[in-house]
Design brief:
By secondary structure, the chain is mainly α. It has a single domain (about 5-95, about 120-160), classed as DsbB-like (Bromodomain-like), CATH 1.20.1550.10. About 70% of the residues lie in helices and about 0% in strands. The protein is built from 5 helices and 2 strands, in the order H-H-H-H-E-E-H. The protein has helices at about 5-30, 35-55, 60-85, 105-115, 130-160, and strands at about 125, 130. It has a two-stranded antiparallel ribbon with strand order 1-2. Helix 1 (about 5-30) packs antiparallel against helix 5. The chain is elongated and about 65 Å long. The mean pLDDT is about 80.
Length: about 160
């Protein structure tokens, strides 16, 4: 019988795997290139996937808490990403396109005609009216809440 640590680890592993597969499908099949913050958001899923596999092999309570914290970090990164897209925050990592005041008309024309544009937080991709960063934040939040509920429901039963 699976205990709640194993179930929680499985939820984290599956959710991270689904998120990464979805991100790579968007990148390679729909040509939606990830910006720097998108890459940072993916790192969270990689870390959690590795930790969840380790936790499935050998159960460590600390790994569960690290996975919870990793998803919280992912939520913070996604919120910052949304804030940059919406103009709430100043970009400090260079994710948005910086305007160069010394650009020539030829350089401007070439950049506008170039169909192979670099990824940027200035141009978010929207699905059903929400940016992909917003969907990522909602996904992380939902999975985190489900995982916390599963894990601590079992912990409560163990105490009584």
């Amino acid at each position: 019988m699976l205990n709640n640590s194993k179930i929680t680890s499985t939820v984290f592993l599956l959710s991270s795997t689904v998120a990464l597969i979805f991100a790579y499908i968007l990148q390679y099949f729909f040509n939606i290139l990830p910006c720097k913050l998108c890459i940072y958001e993916r790192i969270v899923f990689y870390v959690v996937a590795v930790l969840s596999v380790l936790c499935l092999i050998k159960e460590y309570k600390a790994l569960i808490y690290i996975m919870f914290c990793s998803y919280l970090i992912g939520i913070i990164i996604s919120f910052y990403h949304i804030g940059i897209e919406a103009g709430w925050f100043q970009d400090i990592i260079g994710c948005t396109e910086q305007i160069n005041n010394n650009i020539t008309i030829e350089e401007l024309r070439n950049s506008l005609l170039n169909t192979h544009r670099l990824p940027s937080c200035d141009r978010g991709y929207y699905v059903l009216g929400l940016s992909l960063a917003t969907w990522n934040l909602l996904y992380l939040l939902i999975i985190l809440l489900i995982s916390v509920r599963i894990y601590f429901r079992g912990r409560r039963k163990e105490i009584t």
